[in-house]
Amino acid sequence: RHHAPKKNKRAFPPGPKPLPFLGNVLDIDSERPWLTYSAWRKQYGPIVYCQLLGQDVIIINSAKVARQLLDRRSSIYSSRPASCIGKLFGIEFNTAFLPYGPEWRIHRRMFHQALRVEAAESYQALYLSKAVLLLKNFLDTPDDFEKHLQLYIASITMAVTYGYELTSLGAPLVKPVSELVRLLNDGLPPERNAMLTVFPFLAYFPAWVPGAAFARDAARCRELSLKSLNDPFEYVRKNMAAGSATRSMVSDLLSQLSDEQNYAQEEKAIKECAASAYVGEPQSAATLSTFLMAMTLYPDAQQRAQAEIDSLLAENILPDCSHRASLPYMEAVLRETLRWNSVAPLALPHTTSSDDIFEGYFIPKGAMVMPNIWYIHNDDSEYNRPDVFNPERHFNADGALTDDPLSSRVAFGFGRRHCPGKWVADASLWVAMVSILALFRVEKRRDGNGRAIEVEPRFTAGVVRRPLPFSCSIVCRSASRAHAVRLVDD
Ligand code: HEM
């Protein structure tokens, strides 16, 4: 429902003039809505109001304003738009879709308990062992790098959430999850996916639901979702009963359950949280793929990172988390990867749960609020030539890394809805990146005539942006590190 501002007193933030009914739908680049929103920044300023099919939408094109609203007024700005897509696809229990309220609060408490920074650190040995498998796979079949990156991410997710050792994407316990992730991210064609980014509420309209393939996918998703909710959870419960469970989010949370009264409710929440963790998989895999693309396109940055690794570590030593503080350039490479091409350009939409006034502007209850992370990362008053991958920009004039703590990194969203998996994501991304650069040189592939095959930085549309398929050569650059990798048991 559209809330008209009270005359003279309450004005919406500035924005394009809406057409009756359609609002500003026709103004928006449906494949890359963040570009339209970024153009509006120049015209209307950091906070823009628009109207899409009667829905109030607030676009925030500024980290400062996003913090003022989503962080500091988080009791108002922390819900999610209602959407029947969740129900249709059987994923309405997912933390990311829950409205602000008691159920969501229980989920966040559990995520905090199981994946907060100290917990994420306690899985360091696990990330390293999965990185060894990644390196072996790169040594054996470098051209399948996308598949290997996916396996690395999926195996960490499955081990951290369920203590399950995944060695192939075809393993029975993860097949439903992999298929679900694929259907949700790829099965919805990009333009429809993009439509949903701009108009999540479109899912309300049954008429929008377009055709048999979509209905079939939705039915399949419901089936897969139920399986991925129950099967891995039962696996942990069985192992715990047999005394053979390895540590994981689910086993930690189950063993700490003490509230007799709410046991069933809490147990259900544990199951749902665990089955929500896969929402991070496409983002994490897309980030690693973006990293390989950046390394292919920017050999100087790559060589600097490798020189830093080689000056710290002997020829036959592989990096581990204890080296992280001594590798500032590597740190800058990770930060720059997250900035250079945002994998979640509009984060996930927040909604307001009551009316608000900001700098004299009226922000109505139920407005959809989208932080434009893409703009914040590409703001040319903040970043010189933002389209260039340049890790140097993360250093001060005195050569120290800029102050940019993970807790406030915009790539992971804002306020109470910030990504609860960011500490696991940060550590597992760092381990993969440093391991790859320690052992390999990533470079442009050459054609039959020895000419370099150019790589265009092109990305998919939709909720999660990832590089379109590209080719690169992944060449071993250290026989002794390769030997060290081979010596580690599977
Ligand atoms: C590069 C990796 C990742 C990126 C860039 C990323 C980014 C994000 C962003 C932007 C949001 C929305 C924040 C907001 O609404 O303001 C989010 C939410 C979420 N992420 Fe991540 N994420 C990543 C990895 C992960 C991982 C590894 C996990 C799980 C282990 C995870 C679990 C979640 C969940 C459950 C939510 C929903 C939170 C809520 O609605 O309360 N993410 N993430």
UniProtKB/TrEMBL annotation:
Stored Gene3D superfamilies: Cytochrome P450
UniProt xrefs under PANTHER family: P450, PUTATIVE (EUROFUNG)-RELATED, P450, PUTATIVE (EUROFUNG)-RELATED-RELATED
Pathway membership, UniProt: Secondary metabolite biosynthesis
Keywords, ordered alphabetically: Heme, Iron, Metal-binding, Monooxygenase, Oxidoreductase, Signal
Residues reported in the UniProt entry to bind heme: 419
Gene source species: Hydnomerulius pinastri MD-312
UniProt-listed InterPro entries: Cyt_P450, Cyt_P450_CS, Cyt_P450_E_grp-I, Cyt_P450_sf, Cytochrome_P450_fung
Similarity comment: Belongs to the cytochrome P450 family.
Cofactor entry: heme
Protein name: Cytochrome P450
GO molecular function ontology, one term from the record: heme binding
